[in-house]
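2024-03-11 09:14:02 INFO receiving multi-entity request
2024-03-11 09:14:02 INFO entity count = two
2024-03-11 09:14:03 INFO echoing inputs for audit
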Amino acid sequence: MSSSPTFTATIEKIIERAPDTRSFFLRVANGQKLPFLPGQFLSFLLPIGGRTLTRAYTIASLPEEEGCLEICLNQVGDSPGSSYLFSLEEADVLCFTGPWGNFVLDQPTAAEYIFIADRVGVVPFRPMIARLLTAGGQHAARLLYAGPRSGDLLYATEWQRWERQCAHFSFRPLIAECEPEEYSIEKGLLPYVEQHFVKEARQHSRRFYICGIGRPVLLLRDLLRGAGYERQTVKYEKW
Amino acid sequence: MAKLYVSFENGNPEQVIEFDPSHAPFHHDGESGSLLDILLGHGVELEHACGGNCACTTCHVIVTQGMAYLTENEEEEDDMLDKAPGLVSTSRLGCQAVMAEGEVKIFIPRHTINQQV
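2024-03-11 09:21:47 INFO inference complete, emitting structure
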């Protein structure tokens, strides 16, 4: 059991974001507002199989938003954590600690920010990009977001709206047009990054943020660091 | 059998865990056979806010003896350890350091918090 302060929250709303992907809107008990930085996660204490499992889920909502905290996750095969959460209903209660994590964007610097994600890995970028676009200073930012099908892309209408509203933000969806089980970052995302940030226009003042599940995150990290981008400018979070 | 000696900065009594590495995983948190997995599977609590995914530093431990019996750090662990408070040359993340034999002594520091707000 964690020795950190534990919060309880009620699931106020559940929505389907994409196939096998849901958002849970959590209202913290006693009307508490939980301060957090864009990109941080909550650590849930889940009663599964007679013991307490700790599972982390990134906060999708913005620190400035009033009301509920949103977490967004996909159901991963036989993962006990996501299977447990997907069995819950509105009005059920969850316990968590946090916020946690250093994969954050709080005070942007004068650099071009490149956010790279596939599928549910885009979740921390929602509050990060919102922070960037409202920070002043006209920070240039690009979101490269890949998935097997267009319907798998989360918050797509929001990214498109932000692109229309902010001349310095661009959204580049990279759809592999394949079944999820056939999908890999080699089908679009990896070649795109290689073409645009390694072979052409290598600018070492860029800041890269990469998020996703498993080995693809490390492939992208190695590609960029191997091309000469400094270690500290290529940040990543691998789930 | 392998032996893991655990001491705590918070004053908890030292613990000795004797275990058969071939029985890993013990708890299904962190890498199979990792220090985190061994500790949790034997009733010794170690913070692991990210669930043992190398996405935080709350399972930071300091190895005081037997580093050679642990798997070597990978770049991912080193990147994360950079952010750990109280980092020393023998720091490891409990979720990543796998112990398959021998005797290892670790020290669990008090400050495992990396909340930033």
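2024-03-11 09:21:48 INFO post-check: The two ends of chain B are 43 Å apart (CA to CA).
2024-03-11 09:21:48 INFO post-check: Chain B touches chain A at residues 28-29, 45, 47-58, 75-76, 79-80, 83, 113-117 (CB under 8 Å).
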